[in-house]
Design a protein that fits this description.
A three-stranded antiparallel sheet has the order 1-2-3. It has a domain at about 25-95: Nucleoid-associated protein YbaB-like domain (Ybab, Chain: A), CATH 3.30.1310. Helices cover about 50% and strands about 15% of the residues. By secondary structure, the chain is α+β, with helices and mostly antiparallel strands. It contains three helices and three strands. Keywords: Coiled coil, Cytoplasm, DNA-binding. Its main location: cytoplasm. It comes from Ekhidna lutea.
């Protein structure tokens, strides 16, 4: 028989674990680079840019458009990687807390 109190307890536990996992996203980092390593960006699991390295050879360059494109590419790679790592972290943190109910998609919570 379906135990509603047990299910509510599981929901509360999952909410707690989800909040804890989300709070830890700031500690997950990912890097992206472009231009053969001339530009390197670091993002965290909250998809925030937390570091940017630009090789000195670009700083003296007069080609600002190329530098802009390389920065954008590196940042996008870092944010994409951070997003994947964040999703994996949330998945691991909440694994086994909720039963696999067909049609119940919790992916939007991540």
């Amino acid at each position: 028989m379906f135990d509603m109190m047990k299910m509510m307890g599981k929901v509360k536990e999952m909410q707690s674990k989800m909040k804890e996992a989300q709070d830890q996203l700031k500690d997950i980092t990912a890097e992206g680079e472009s231009g053969g390593g001339l530009v390197k960006a670091t993002a965290n699991g909250n998809k925030e840019l937390i570091g940017l390295e630009i090789d000195d050879s670009l700083v003296n360059s007069t080609d600002k458009n190329m530098m802009r494109d390389l920065v954008i590419a590196a940042v996008n790679k870092a944010v994409g990687e951070a997003d994947e790592k964040g999703k994996e972290h949330i998945k691991k943190s909440t694994e086994g807390l909720m039963p696999n109910i067909p049609g119940m998609d919790l992916s939007g919570m991540m």
